[in-house]
Amino acid sequence: MIPSLTVTRSAPASPAGLDPTRALAFIRRRWEEDVVPALVEYIGIPAKSPLFDPGWQEHGQLDRAVALVEDWWRARPVDGLRVEVVRLPGRTPVLLADVPGQSDETVLLYGHLDKQPEMTGWAEGLGPWTAVRRGDRLYGRGAADDGYAAFAALTAVEALAVARVPRARALILIESGEESGSPDLPAYVEALADRLGTPGLIVCLDSGCGNYEQLWATTSLRGIVGGLLTVEVLTEGVHSGAASGIVPSSVRILRRLLSRLEDERTGEILSPEFHVEIPPARLAQARAAAAALGSAIWSRFPVVPGMRPAPVDPAELLLNGTWRPALAVTGAAGLPAPEDAGNVLRPRTSLKLSLRLPPTADAARATGRLKEILEADPPSGARVTFVPQPAGGGWEAPAMSPWLLGSVGLASTTYFGGPVMFSGEGGSIPFMSLLGQRFPRAQFLITGVLGPESNAHGPNEFLHLPTGARLTACVAQVLADHHRATAG
Ligand SMILES: [Zn+2]
Known about the structure:
By secondary structure, this protein is α+β, with helices and mostly antiparallel strands. The chain is built from 15 helices and 18 strands. The protein has 2 domains: 294 residues, Zn peptidases (Aminopeptidase, 3-Layer(aba) Sandwich), CATH 3.40.630; 106 residues, Alpha-Beta Plaits (2-Layer Sandwich). 36% of the residues lie in helices and 19% in strands. Strands 1-2-6-3-7-17 form a 6-stranded mixed β-sheet, with helices on one face. A 4-stranded antiparallel β-sheet has the order 11-13-9-14. Strands 4-5-18 form a 3-stranded antiparallel β-sheet. It binds zinc ion. Zinc ion (ZN) binds next to helix 4.
């Protein structure tokens, strides 16, 4: 059972509208009887994104996940539903569910089924490819990020069909390369341009939520730039007793280079080129979200005892994680494992840098600037190279139309019992900026189930099942309201 689902609004919004009690009861049953069993099967498939499984075509795991969703979709009793797997040569497949509606408008619903790799640190009894249900939580890799989306999206459409509530045409697009940066999507968007049409509403189900008590709409995504920074000081390693103090170590030079980029005491990125002015509306929303979240902004992370946040103000923390640049060192080379490390002044060290950017920063320019800052005037004349990775732009959602603002507000109080919250996300969804550029007049609802402790990408990832069902109901509500607002 999915426990503690209650509806706080019992009467339908209009005679033709969705009856929340019945809609939620239907969705809850669908989740329990059909969605959860499918997700249990899905968790068992190690459908790692191509970046983490370069042999994905021979291994066939992505195809297994595609087949699971395809079969599940085809079995849904939805009138007019057309299911298709599209495969461009050499690219990861895309799943389409096309459900005709009662108007010419199109709503595009997006999610992905490729997964992050295993990661270590799973708790006793849990593992990436084994579904374990404990209370409200379904543990295992990929159910929350983002396997649930394919099932939730069609369930929302089905709920409207059962209730005979009109809606626009619904086109569900599920890709299988998101965790690799969606490298194949631009080609699919081109190839499927006629099928996509011009969506008036885009619903993305691959985002986060600040808690499980209200509906969260993502207003912005950060961009990302990065690459490999290498410092070479010697042509071969030498006895550290002989050379240290005479030859500068590559790590010391790296420290100086990183200090050009960030203040090591605060983590602040120093160069103004990586910052943007935060729009006043987003500042106000961040303050509201910070008030709702409080210390959870910090405590949702598995920090070791004794750790404390740098800025204490929750709103500032939230803005640091959504509208300000921040650096992470995600990998290193040139360092032996400690048990193999002799007293050697090593010839070189490489660090993989990942710099998150504010939503509206120019990622291509930022990459160029990063290279300039790191490579200029190398300390002690060391050989310094920075090899950038392809940059990913961030994105800020367009302002919501009054109908959508009203719809998400009512959906949140109806199905969650709390007011809707708006917040930026610290991560990136490359497809959203692509769609934003391509469909500048579209409205966006970007939401998801990645809430406290859900730990996508890390160990012990789980899907909060009541949130999955409630979110499905919210999406159904928004589709109904979209039709009412646009069908004249
Ligand atoms: Zn995702």
